[in-house]
Structure formats: C-alpha cells, structure tokens
Write a structure and sequence with these properties.
homodimer; about 325 residues; alpha/beta; 434 Repressor (Amino-terminal Domain); Rossmann fold; 3 domains; 4-stranded parallel beta sheet; DNA-binding
Chain lengths: ~325, ~325
Amino acid sequence: MEDVARLAGVSHQTVSRVLNAHPNVSAQTRERVEQAIRELGYRRNTAARSLVTRRSQTIGVLGSDMSHYGPANTLLGVQQAARDKGYFVSMASLNEVTPVAIQDALEYFMMQSVDGIVVIVPHEAMFESLSTISMAVPLVAVGFGVDERLSVAAVNQRMGASLAVQHLVDLGHTAIAHVSGPPDWIDAAARIDGWRRTLAQAELDDSVLIRGNWSAESGYRAGLELAAAGKVTALFAANDQMALGALRAFSEAGLRVPQDISLVGYDDQPEAAYLVPPLTTVNQGFKELGARCMQMLLFDMANGHSGASSVVNPRLVVRSTTAPPHTAR
Amino acid sequence: MEDVARLAGVSHQTVSRVLNAHPNVSAQTRERVEQAIRELGYRRNTAARSLVTRRSQTIGVLGSDMSHYGPANTLLGVQQAARDKGYFVSMASLNEVTPVAIQDALEYFMMQSVDGIVVIVPHEAMFESLSTISMAVPLVAVGFGVDERLSVAAVNQRMGASLAVQHLVDLGHTAIAHVSGPPDWIDAAARIDGWRRTLAQAELDDSVLIRGNWSAESGYRAGLELAAAGKVTALFAANDQMALGALRAFSEAGLRVPQDISLVGYDDQPEAAYLVPPLTTVNQGFKELGARCMQMLLFDMANGHSGASSVVNPRLVVRSTTAPPHTAR
DNA sequence: TCCCCCTAAGTTAGCGCTAACAATTAGCTT
DNA sequence: AAGCTAATTGTTAGCGCTAACTTAGGGGGA
C-alpha cells in the first residue's frame, strides 16, 4: 500500500480511502491512485484488514447430504450470493448429524472467526441441536420452521406441495397418491403435510401415502405398487427422481401419462423438462433462497440476532405429465 | 492472549510458544498456560496470526458440476482432508467452464490470500485454461493427466475401466459393450480408453460403444438398444446410475442379469450394493483422493511447485451382476 | 572454583491495514 | 479582509500475534 501511495504521490491513508470508497477523496486523486493500483497489481492484505476491522469477510456454511439435489443447490445458491456480496465462503460438511459433530464444526468456524454461519442440514435432529446452542455470531438456518430462537430462510414446502396437489384437484382428480422422502427430512415432512392439508381442504382421501427415499428406485417401486392397485388417477412425488422412477413404472405397467395417470414431481431439476413426457414439477428457486440467506445474515450481522424468517415461494411448472383424469385418447 | 498470560503468570510470548508447541517450555508452565486457556475459553486470532506468519491456513477449492457424484465426493474428500490437516476450505464454484469464469474465481482466491488451490473441474477445457495460467500459489488439479506444468492428483480411471473389463474377459465374455459419459469429461474419456485398451489386449472387438450422459435415463436407453441388438453378453457402464438404468432396461427386455448379460458399473455409490441384483462396480476412494490432494498441496506449499502427480488406484468390487456368459439357470 | 553453554523464560519490533485525530487549503460569509 | 466552515489530505497509534533478540538461571567440564 505504501508503494502504491508513493507512486500516486499520496499517503497510504488516501490509498486506503480510495479502496474503501470513502467520499472525501477528489476525483483526480482517486484516478491517480487507481492507476497506481492497476500498475502495480496491488491487492489489499485481507489479514491486516481483518485484524483492524474485526471482521473476516467470511461466512461459514455447514452442510450435510451434499449429494442430494436440494442441499447441493442451496449450497451453490448461498455461495453465489455470498460472493456477490463480497464475502468468502468457508465450508464444513457433516458426515453424521450428531450434537458432537455439529459442535465440532461450529467450533471450527469460530476458530476461523467467520462473520456469520449458514446451516444447510435438512434434518429434524439439526433443529433440536441448534436451538439449544447459543452462538457467538449470527446464524441463519435453511429450511427449518419458524422459531424465534433461530433466523430461518426457507422455501415454503407446504405451499409447494399445495400448488402441486391443488393443480391435480383443479384438473378434477379425486384420488391422489403421494410418494414422500424419508420423514426425518424436514422438507419431506412438510411436503407430506402440504399434500394432506390440500386434500383435506378438498375433502379428499389421503390414505395413499408411500414412503420413498428420494431415489428413482423407490419411485419406481411406488409406481409399480400404484399401478397394480389401480386406485388413484394421480401421483404427487416428493422429488423429480422419484417421479422419474414412477414414470418408468407406469410405462411398464401400460399406464399412459397423463391420459391414464397424472404425475407431478418436485425440484424442477434440469432434466425434468426433458423427460418423456416433460414433467410437471415444482421449482424451488435455490438462487433466490441463497440470496435471502445472505440478506438475512447481513441483517443479523448488522443488527444482532433477529430470529426473523424469510420464506421463498416455490413455483408450479406445468408441463405435460398432468391432465384431467381418464382423458380420452 | 495477554489475559491468558496474566492468569498463568507468564508473558504473552510464552503463551504463544505453548500454542505453537515450541520445545523450550517446561512441562509445568505448559500445563499452567493450557489451564488458563481452557479457563478463559481463549481462541487465537486468525487474522493477527496470518498477518505475521504470512499464511492464511486456508485453501481454495474450485469446483464445477457439484451435483454429480464424482465432483461432489471429491470436494467432500478434500474438505475433510484439509480440516484434518488444520486448514480451512474456501470454495468457489463455476457455473460455466470458461477462461473468464476461471480467471475470476482464481482472482477471488488470491484476494483471500489462500495458501493453495485445489481444482475439481473434470473437463478438458479446464486443463487447457490451467496450463496456460501461471499461479502465484501452489495448485493441485484433480483428475487430469500427468503434465509437468501441473501437480495432479487423480484416480487411475484407465485402470478402473481395465479392472472392470478384465473381470468380464476373465469370466469368458468376448462381446463387451460400453456406455460412456459425455466425452468432454476427462474421466469419461479415460474410461473409454481403458475399455478399448483392455479389449485390444484380449484381441476383442470394441465396436459397441454407446455415448451416454451419466443419467439413469441414458443408461436405460443404452440397455434397451443392446437388448434389442442382442450382440453382447456384457456391458460396462461408466457410472452406477447408467448401470441402474441398464439394469431396468434388461429386466424389461426379459434379459436376466447376470445369467443372460453381465453388468459392471462405476463409482460404487452407496446404493450400488442394494440394487437387485447387487451391482459389481468400481470403487474410486474419494477420501483417499482428497487426502492425496492435500498431501501434494502441502508438499508444493513447502517446496514450491512440483508438477508431481499422485494416482489413486481404484478397486473392483465384485457383487452379483457379473457371471460367465450364458450361464445355465 | 570459574567459565561457558544450554534451557526457559521475557522484551521489543513490526506484519499491513484502518480509525481517529490533526493539518492544510479553498471557499464563503459578514 | 478577517474569520469560519467544509473538503481534502497527512500523521499517529494500535489491532493480536510471532520472530528475533535479550536476559536470567542452572549444570558440567577444565
């Protein structure tokens, strides 16, 4: 910085002011300094800066199940939003969701003196751990229910499920099944709940619930089961992969989609538009979720813990796997 | 640190010595200091430490395609290894593999003054970009071929493919097909090559190559195609998902696995053991890969750029989808 | 016994930056 | 024209740590 100052013929403090966009620098000086910075390829030393400002410009992201579409994309969304806001992202991932592992990971972030933490661990167990821990830095949890002890950013899963189911109801379906994710996943539970409530509101039967595990395989098995029973005209799958499995099962069983049975997925994975037929599904907007996370975290970092929540509304994407029941060819 | 020193009745430098495991501290003093640290819950300030030592204890991990099994698990492996070695992990992910995006991400890491960089971008295009860039900090690339300009840690994909194909050859198969990944992925190309070479060595035909895209869907289509043609008795799929798709296609086509057709996957994803029948596949050892990455990076960080390479050998996991051709029931 | 050396501490300086304050200049107002 | 304000720049101190140097106390060999 001293070198830059010398080259620009100013003091190091003026260079600092230029870098921090301080208002009281004349346009001419600013230009000279910027020129010198470019010329020398100067980069500010983060450590020195952190030492005096007492912020690291780093946020910690704690994750688990990163091989799944939801968590992986939430991480990407948060990462992108953080980078856009000038923050660095440090990550730690949990192999197992236990209090000890969580504690360790948080300790690791404290050692790094992160300015804030985002938690992407979509299990009920995490919520319990988190709500008993008192944190030294702001923390935003992704996907949990509203709770004043925690700042939360989430996609409204119940609404997403409602959107899907209501769409089927509106088309005239009266027997609508659901293949769910593992119920210890918060999102899976919320989607089951949304499915159930929407059916209740329409005074329809909610007895056909099949427990899946997110895999195409489990969707396939569910599809086979439903085709054999022949009791429903529509299926709401808790993710696109299970929908894909079901699609195959239906085709094997000689059921045409959507003429004989309608199908709605969840996630709007890129391939959803390219299935045959293209899958009606629910888009969760992970970019938006990531941006909201950062926004909340920045707010909490500025004003202290808020316990607020920010809910992103999912969007139904209607493609070709849904139609009124028993459509003539 | 001053507080700790006061409580332990020593100078702050002695505290520093204890924290850095300096030899010239008496056991008794060390104990007193450690006690004081525990009592006060003291944590060393990373920024101050970085400022004087000129290292950030942070490595940057540049990734892409994090929704795929390989990249995601490599990231996890590197992350774990880094944490074990006392390093923090900063991540940046690429939405598109272009020189500009790569340059931006590397610049971002330089701003953070990372001590080293790991690149997990399994595309040919990345290799070209990287080998023209000269880096200010050590960089280890994952999965590229050996090249003295780059330090590389990789799984020996050709060997993995060989293991799979040789296993089929040893069982007596003479017509062995391959469903590959997209050929701009380095791993996909290497597996094709391994398949081809092993067949050549056994003087077998390598004409049945089907280009897949990693998805179960593409494996399914390949399976259908092969079943219809009826020319091969074995299929080597470039990942487990495609193997899964093929498995279903074979079953639809009335082909029994392994009696009528043998199948080998690649990746050894957790679910591979639970397919029906359990899938013979190739295990890549991402933990080991991550550890090797860190080991090389640490070496390069200590001794300057090495251009060395470290190759992890994959392991064939024989389960139930492979058998000699045309086995009687 | 004396001196030297080795061990276990303490003291000092400075890493590169920003905040707070001080100083200078220019531009008004009266 | 004196005096005041505002805008711009410079000077100084210190963030919390480690490296390098300094000091104080014991042994052990001559």
